[in-house]
Each structure stands twice: as C-alpha cells, then as structure tokens.
Amino acid sequence: MFTGFFPKLGSPQPTPTVVPPPGPRPNTPAGPQTPGTEPPAPGTVAGNIQELGQMTLPEQPESNIHCLTIVGQIEGHLVLPPQNKTTKYEHIIPQLVAVEQNPKIAGLLLVLNTVGGDVEAGLAIAEMIVSMSKPTVSLILGGGHSIGVPIAVSADYSFIAETATMTIHPIRLNGLVIGVPQTYEYLDKMQDRVVRFVTKHSHISEPKFRELMFRTGELARDIGTVLVGKEAVDVGLVDAVGGINSALEKLNELIAAQKSAKGPVQ
Amino acid sequence: MILYTPMPLELVLEGMEDYRPQYEEVVVRGHKLLVERTGVNQAKLVRLLSTNPNDFLDPSFFPGSILTFPAE
Lengths: 266, 72
Known about the structure:
The structure holds 2 protein chains of 2 kinds.
Chain A: E1 65-75, E2 86-88, H1 89-101, E3 107-118, H2 119-130, E4 136-144, H3 148-153, E5 157-160, E6 165-168, H4 181-201, H5 206-213, E7 225-228, H6 230-234, E8 240-241, H7 244-262
Parallel strand pairs in A: 1-2, 1-3, 3-4, 4-5, 5-8
Antiparallel strand pairs in A: 6-7
Helix pairs in contact in A: 1-2
Chain B: E1 3-4, H1 9-12, E2 23-28, E3 31-37, E4 42-49, E5 66-68
Antiparallel strand pairs in B: 2-3, 3-4, 4-5
C-alpha cells in the first residue's frame, strides 16, 4: 500500500483534476483494495493517478506484427543494480503468451542488442520463442552476446547487421565460490544446455561452436570469439546479414506462407 | 543465478550490496502493480501482477514506467 504521500510545498505537480472529496486522506485507504474494482473511486490512491508517465503513440492502423526488443542485461532471478539496463523476463514471457494467443498478431520481430545475462531467463525466453506457432524473425543490431546467442537463433529466421557482433565464450561461475567438485560439473551442465540449444536451432555444428567458445587469443579478458556480421553467417549461427527491411520482408513472407498453408479459412 | 555475459562482473554487480529496493503494491485501473517509490509522489513500475496475457502488451504497464501521484 502507498502511505505517506505528504503534500509538498511548491511541488511542481499540476493541480489534480480529480478533487478528492472530504473525508479520510486519500493516501490512506481504509481497507484492503480488491483487485478488479474498476474504475477506482476518486479519493483512493488509484483514483488519484493522473498519468503513467509513458508516451503513447497516436492511434495508428494496427500492425499485425509485434516487435520485441531485448536490450542490456537479461535480468533473471536477482534484481540487478540500477546502473544496468535490463530486460525483465517476467514481463517478456507473458507478452510472448499474448503474442501467440492474440489473433490480431500474425508474427513476431525480435530486435536484439544485448550483453547477455541470466542463463535461466535467457533460455526461458529462447524456449518460448522457439515453441511459438507464429512466424518469428530476429535481428541482431549492435550486439547479441553470450545468452543473446540462443535467443537470436530461436527465431525461425535470423538476421545480423553488418557491424553487429556476437561474443561466444564459456560460462563462468560468478558470485559463488567453487567449493565442491560438483560445482564444475554443474557449470558444465549449464553450458551444455546453451550449446545444445544453439546447435539444435542453427546451422552450426557442436564441435565448431565449442571451438569458437574455447578459442584463445581473441578476447583480452577471456577465451572465446567475437563474430562480426558476416562471420556469424559464415559459421552457420545466423541465417543472413541484413537490416530492418530484410527482416520485415522475411517476416511478411513467412506470414504469407503460413497463411496459404493454412488455407483461406482458418 | 549464473550470469552469462561478456561484461566485467564488477561493472554489472557494482552496488549490489547497497541496492535494497523497497517495493509496494498498488492497484491502478484495476491492475495490481508492484512499484518502487522514487519520490514523494512518484513511483517506478517494477512488475505488473496479472494473469491476463494481454495486459502485458499495454505500454502503460511496461516495467520502468513512472507513475505520478498528484500532490494534495
């Protein structure tokens, strides 16, 4: 519950449009609020909200594709400190459910510029995308590193911008102290999950992917490989080099193909 | 949690120990939200608590949105 919204003298806030009625202070609701009460009565905290502070676009003819952007760190089970830009997997997953279920949405465009993140959260998103029945196309701009790689290959077709990079390196344990021998095994298992997913959903072979993962001399702080644009296509990780036009063209093509396969009556 | 990232961990996890966000639950337009107070009458949306998948497509409920509560 929100408590203690004390009025501030000289507050920059505009005068509220909803005049709170006399009686109990609006910031201290008398009882527990039941979800689903709509619209909230003026005078309650909910009734006093003027705006949610987000830009709303003017009404446009509805697009039949949904664009999902994966940026920064993919945040998992721990909340990362605020200097990180994060993609919240707990919001992405129900969004993907809505995309799959909503009859108005015909396809999904995935735009990636990520530095990786939580293994579990990243794989969860990738598994969701790979199991969708609607056409999906991914586009890597800037970077699709580490756990961004399985997400990039999870789409039906993937594109990489000419200058975009993908870093492939081993998973290292962090934050925890390796104290028991099982930890190494555990880490290896986690890595195998990523390797298996990537090799299953792209054209790269497992020995090749592991070779890139453990290559020495390319990364200053680590072992691994950085693939730039076309290199990612050459090793079979990504399908093609391209930008937004090629990605949208491919997505529309896949949507049309799916429509004709299903027949005129769905 | 295993972080799989090429970014130096000291950068990612900097301030992790001191970062203790306080979350509160509010109901906005019939939707239950988890918010983090950022000012006297401002809060940042952390999470939408809903079982309706279509609610998650509503841009006003994207994580990071700022909610402003008017001063009395």
